[in-house]
Amino acid sequence: APSVGIDPDQERNPPSPPTPLEFPRYDQFANQGVYSATDFKAISQGLASLKKPQDFTVEHARVLNLHVAADLDASQLVPGQLLKNLAPLPWEETTSPDKPEQYLMSNGVAYPAVEKYNLVKAELLLENDDAYREAVRVPPKPGRPRVRLTQSRKFWVGLEKMAQYWDDSLDEYYEKPVNATEQTNQDQLGEASTAEATTTDAMDTSETPRDNESSKRVYKGRRIGTGHEMPDDIREETMRGFLEMAAWPFQCQLAIPSLPPRLLVQRLLFPTRQTLVASRTPLDRQIARKGILEGPMLAVQCRGQTTFREAGETFGYGRKEACDLAREVGAMLLLAQERFRDGTSEVKPGEGKWWTTTPRWGGAPDEGVTGEAAARSEKEKESESEPGDGSVHKRSRYSNSLMASRRSARPRKLTPSEKWKILEAGPSLWDKRLIYTQIGKPKDSLYDDIFMVSQINHHVSILHLRVHRRYIECLTHGVSETTDGGESEHPWDVLKLRRSKWYDLMDGEQRIEAFQGLWRVFHYLMGKKEPDISITSRSFHPDGESKDVDE
Question: Which residues lie within the region annotated Disordered (predicted)?
Fold first, then answer.
């Protein structure tokens, strides 16, 4: 288990060797400009045939008709041209500093002040060791000033725990002679334990052989384990702290999905992974106090995989790489399904169908259990109802009117047989604490922009998926009432994924670049959209640059 405040200068037993860094590549899904028709029936059949993750192949991912542009800068995911009618970014110079203009977000609240961003930026640029010591409340090293963490404490606490498994920059191994004092103490403990064992078993009289080694291998550094041993909750804690620094200034919150994330593919519920989901806080205080949010806006997916290629596989063409990419795309497609629920009413699985309205067995009344089993159950009920000799003078626990009223207020728990007889639709797939809204999407566009933050090792990457409404409807129901064919640069049945490079959270400059990318995403989603200001009105290029499209 991770400890609080590891001293890198303290000698201890060596941990496991460091886990080598490995990242997936996506060469087999690179955008080639050639589009083929998507077979949604093949998608459903392929996912239904999977019994374990090892059954996933590259062909299962290719049927999604996915085109990927990777290793982009975070700033390219939301180009500056799309932000020209919004408030200026805090790290950019304003055009009129003497008379700043008041910019409002889509919910009517003013954009975050520049001071909020500058405060977070200053804390993210702190030296790792100084921030670690302040996060775990350990005095700074001699000659080093004490730093303040007002906005990023949760992030630094999580990153300090993450460094205990990944930060090998201070690793130092060496041989050390065995201390005579320590050896004497060990001998005394051994003799005491031997004497205690002798009192219980006279046969155990042999002494424990002493270690004749004159030296031992010791370790100095920050690690207590290796990367693949790190618990998943450390990733979640670190990512929550990192995302909240960008979400809170924009009136947004992060929460764990209240329902198991499942992608609806026609009649199949395919499990996906969403670690956290960012949504907007309602302006109505009464609604906000109930824990209800608006969205979703952005998803976070943390994964513990550290190997993405099997022996002999070519970089960018492996099965594990395709499976890892499918995990990310599945989580983003689920986010798109939830966002497209805006303005619609829920239809539960099987609602209005004959198997949820017509009784079983052709409509005949169900007599329940019959035969000897029924007779035996009747006798058991009679024996339970007859009072015994010892219970004649006992007062019934229901004689108290207050207790009886409290008991009657609680609904009786149904038996499995009674539940089986109830005819109703399947359980709801909608989150009751979420008001489904397509925040950040222009109303006149059939495309939606889906953003997600992916996390592996101690790195993060920001993803942007552009998906057409017709694609989601065909994926969900098999058919679509929408007849729009999309744009010539992006047909409706093609998924275009753009992703940033992997940013190291333990590097100050890369932390800032990743944080600025997140800030741009929230800045764009929370802004007021004009009909001609949208990512969906621009063509897609593998180099990440955007280009105006004549419509």
Answer: 1-25, 181-230, 344-413
